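Hey, why these numbers?
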Amino acid sequence: MEISILLAEQIIAMFLTMAVGFGVVRAGLFKTEDSRIISNMVVYICNPCVVVHAFQIELTDDKIKGLMIAVGMSVIVHVILIVGSELLSYIIHFNSIEKASVIYTNAGYLVIPLVSAVLGEEWVFYTTAFILVQTILMWTHGVKLIGQEKNLNIRKILCNPNVIAMMIGIALFALEIRLPAVIDSCVSGFGDMISPASMMVIGMVIGDVDLRWVFRQKRPYLICMIRLILFPLIAAIAFAGLERTGLHPDAEYILMIVLIATAAPAAAMVTQLAQIYEKDSRYASVINVMSVICCIITMPLMVLIYEILIG
């Protein structure tokens, strides 16, 4: 109960930061296009710094086992999301934007700052598992789904700044190399910027969107219910049962981190890929905006259900 309350408080605080981004665009102080500068800073500087800093911990068997569990659970979650969305498509008839929005979450922007604020910086280490799995799938399955590309773009995967940061972080972790104090201070400083900067971006992106029009759309409610409630609820129940098996001393929080990532809103990257491949990016942004706003209630609710189930 306590963690779900802390999560709700943190999401509300982040929502207020998003409201600032929304307000400065509405006031004419910035344009929506200006968000790309901040977005690039988050993607290419802040997020990689957080990832590298997350691996600056003591190498232990428990940490390695915990990371492997997080990776394994992240793979299983994505398999279920992909297969589940295909099965549901026979009934609901998803288009490519809807299917991608159900499968891929805004884990990069939301999960790292949330986990850092609610559980502590030392737990960010486990968030890298979900982000790594999703990054690889986004640039393979996701690109094929939205852009109908047939060829696998290995270069885009390997050149993704978050993947590079993970490789550096894992190397430092495995070799037990600690960054010098001055460099570590710089890296952690950029990492501290991720929460306000990422939420400012989301707020600025929706700054010129008519929210009344957004919430008058009917179909996105169904997509959001599946993305924010159906699959996260399945994950919460499954993880609660798995936690009781004594899988790992920190299984409760490792599985909770994967659950938080699973319960996150639709990925902003879906909108960006829709723009690149000239799909319906406006519809993608509607789903993204609606899911971001709705997750203020649904994410803490999923964590609360998980906490109740594990007792």
